[in-house]
Design brief:
single chain, about 290 residues, Aminopeptidase, 13-stranded mixed β-sheet, about 30% helix
């Protein structure tokens, strides 16, 4: 039986994930927003690293804050049961997660809030954190996807034994995401060792022009990530073709019923590509920098 009060864990098992999902559903019904938890990461933490901060009452999970680490970058979000708010539960879990981020030497720590949540907005004001940026969460079901015609882009999956392709992917990630800390050769090898993470290079007329990846979650859902076309090939409709080629592959594979991706609110070009492929906005994430 789970003890009441605060517990820090190194990841969550299937039963723990079900507890988080139940808590997230209760909060979503109360606040009208879906909470962004990375269940793939939660179930595959490093066994010795405390990353999941929980609060229990009468054996039930009523508060949860994960610390997700991407290289030297960390992200914190959280949920507290509506009937147990204003009892300093989130502030305790948040403080524990921030302290752990220092121990893990995260150089860049962000708090993720949800624009539609009044309780989240109130919490952000209380913490006094500084606004950094925002993203749209875009989702599409199989029925909502729109076929992309005239695809001339070929995508080829990157595998562990392909040293040249890994280096090419790393170089392109550094071009398209210069501020990211997860695109080094070493980080990519770690990700490619994870069966839930995959990357593809995109080719046009034999030349590498872009990259795209996925992270598979539970409930037959695929999260699309690391999408980029190198500058000299942009504004030619190739980003939409690359996404279309990946969606065709994933649909044929039959492993996913729901697809999700995030896009910066100011990135109108990418946003239009995703809408044209059938994606719709389901949430807005506001990121705040934790000093």
């Amino acid at each position: 039986m789970t003890s009441d009060g605060f517990i820090a864990r190194c990841g969550m098992d299937e039963a723990g994930v079900r507890e988080i999902q139940e808590l997230a559903l209760i909060c979503a019904q109360a606040d009208g927003v879906d909470i962004k938890f990375n269940y793939g990461m939660i179930q595959n933490r490093k066994p010795e690293v405390l990353s999941d901060f929980c609060w229990y009452r009468q054996g039930k999970l009523i508060g949860y804050v994960p610390l997700d680490q991407f290289g030297s970058k960390g992200e914190i979000t959280g949920a507290v049961h509506p009937e147990h708010r204003r009892q300093h539960i989130f502030s305790h879990l948040y403080a524990e997660a921030v302290a752990q981020s220092h121990r893990l030497e995260c150089r860049d720590l962000l708090l993720v809030s949800y624009r539609g949540s009044s309780s989240g907005t109130e919490t952000v004001k209380t913490l006094g954190v500084k606004y950094f940026e925002s993203e749209y969460c875009m989702r599409a079901s199989l029925a909502e996807l729109r076929k992309v015609d005239g695809i001339e882009v070929e995508i080829r999956e990157v595998h562990l034994h392909q040293e040249e392709e890994i280096l090419s992917l790393s170089r392109m990630l550094s071009i398209n995401f210069p501020a990211a800390s997860w695109g080094s050769r070493e980080d990519l090898i770690k990700e490619l060792n994870d069966p839930d993470k995959r990357y593809w290079l995109a080719y046009r007329r034999g030349e590498v022009i872009g990259h795209i990846g996925i992270s598979s979650g539970g409930d037959r859902e695929s999260y699309i990530r690391g999408v980029g076309i190198v500058p000299e090939w942009r504004r030619q409709g190739l980003g939409r073709q690359m996404l279309g080629a990946l969606l065709d592959l994933l649909v044929a594979d039959g492993a996913s019923d729901m697809f999700e991706l995030d896009v910066a609110t100011e990135n109108e070009g990418a946003l239009n590509i995703y809408i044209a492929c059938g994606f719709r906005q389901s949430n807005v994430y506001d990121y705040y920098r934790v000093e």
